[in-house]
Amino acid sequence: MRCFRLTVALVLTILSSGCSWITVTRPPPRPVDSTPPVQCTTTPAAPIADTAAGLIAIPAGALTVAVGADSFIGRNELTILAGIGIVASGVASLVSAGSGYAWTGECRELQRQQMGCLSGVEESCAALRIEPPPLPSTPGVNR
């Protein structure tokens, strides 16, 4: 029964990691026209979910490893491996959250600049025509 619970926990944790990579629509590359409005994700719901999953999974995985390695209870390699998998999933969730926060923030900024440009603010129009400063790269994620 214990092995079943650990397997279910591991599967649920892995399935919850990377929401931002899957659900966030990235903003288009610049230069961008002032109309039509850019179609990208502005709400940080997915990055928030990724953050919560990561902050829950990492300590839960570490605790699972500790329980599996406890010689008093009896060393259990399956439990240790499950714990390592849960920690890895938590780390992936946090990296995905960082990407999601960057993408949704950039989308909101592009939409703000588009509105400014349509209102006649030349600085906003100019900002839409130039490349933004490069974001830190995320391993395994192509922009």
Would you give an account of this structure?
With 143 residues, this protein is mainly α. It has one domain. It is built from 5 helices and no strands. The longest helix has 42 residues. The N and C termini lie far apart (43 Å).
Set out the fold topology.
Elements lengths: L1 H15 L2 H5 L21 H25 L7 H42 L3 H8 L14
Instruction: Show unreliable segments.
Output: none
Helix content: 55-70%
Number of alpha- plus pi-helical segments: 5
Biggest sheet statistics: none
Secondary-structure element pattern, one letter each: HHHHH
What is the general shape? rod-shaped
What portion of the residues fall into strands of 2 or more residues?
Answer: under 5%
SS-based class: mainly alpha
Number of β-strand runs: 0
User: Mean pLDDT across all residues, rounded?
Assistant: 84
Using only C-alpha atoms, the radius of gyration works out to 21 Å
Number of folding domains?
1
Distance between the first and last residues' Cα: 43 Å
Brief summary of the model shown:
The protein contains 5 helices and no strands. By secondary structure, the protein is mainly alpha-helical.
Which key phrases capture this entry?
single chain, 143 residues, mainly alpha, 66% helix, 0% strand, rod-shaped
